[in-house]
């Protein structure tokens, strides 16, 4: 069993597809172990994406992630990290396989509907960024 962090980004929250995205996880063996809706501050977004601080898209990414509320979740299941990334599809929705969350709900590489941890190690770091142990069931 693994745990991973998922974020439903501001574009998907605005579109009203929170339930449809959660259904993809629950229908594919990923349990929602924790969930909350919040609006990231600029400081939150900068710190969360600190690994990208030298990338040219960092400023736009922070602006986008603070443009509206997000839903952050801990997903739990067998191979949860890889399973979540498979369900999300490629970062650029134009390259995402048919039937993936990004192919179905994302508009662009910035407004790409969801974030998912890219490794088990980063999953633990990202989960602890948003959740205390007693918030994870
Ligand atoms: P995410 O999985 O949240 O991780 C970093 C985000 O940066 C990524 O999704 C994209 O939304 C955004 N981004 C914007 N431009 C790029 C790019 N050229 N390569 C990777 N990520 C990008």
UniProtKB/TrEMBL annotation:
Main location: cytoplasm
EC primary class: transferase
UniProt GO molecular function: ATP binding; metal ion binding; nucleoside diphosphate kinase activity
Subcellular location: Cytoplasm
Reaction catalysed by this enzyme: a 2'-deoxyribonucleoside 5'-diphosphate + ATP = a 2'-deoxyribonucleoside 5'-triphosphate + ADP; a ribonucleoside 5'-diphosphate + ATP = a ribonucleoside 5'-triphosphate + ADP
Cofactor: Mg(2+)
Function, in words: Major role in the synthesis of nucleoside triphosphates other than ATP. The ATP gamma phosphate is transferred to the NDP beta phosphate via a ping-pong mechanism, using a phosphorylated active-site intermediate.
Protein name: Nucleoside diphosphate kinase
Gene source species: Campylobacter sputorum subsp. sputorum
Organismal lineage: Bacteria, Pseudomonadati, Campylobacterota, Epsilonproteobacteria, Campylobacterales
């Amino acid at each position: 069993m693994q745990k991973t962090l998922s974020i439903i980004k501001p574009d998907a929250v605005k579109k009203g597809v929170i339930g449809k995205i959660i259904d993809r996880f629950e229908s594919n063996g990923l349990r929602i172990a924790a969930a909350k809706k919040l609006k990231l501050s600029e400081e939150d977004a900068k710190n969360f994406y600190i690994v990208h601080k030298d990338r040219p898209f960092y400023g736009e990414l922070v602006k986008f992630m603070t443009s509206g509320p997000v839903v952050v979740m801990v997903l739990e299941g067998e191979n949860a990290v890889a399973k979540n990334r498979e369900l999300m599809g490629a970062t650029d929705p134009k390259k995402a396989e048919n039937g993936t969350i990004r192919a179905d709900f994302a508009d662009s590489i910035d407004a790409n509907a969801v974030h998912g941890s890219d490794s088990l190690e980063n999953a633990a770091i990202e989960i602890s960024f948003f959740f205390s142990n007693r918030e994870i069931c």
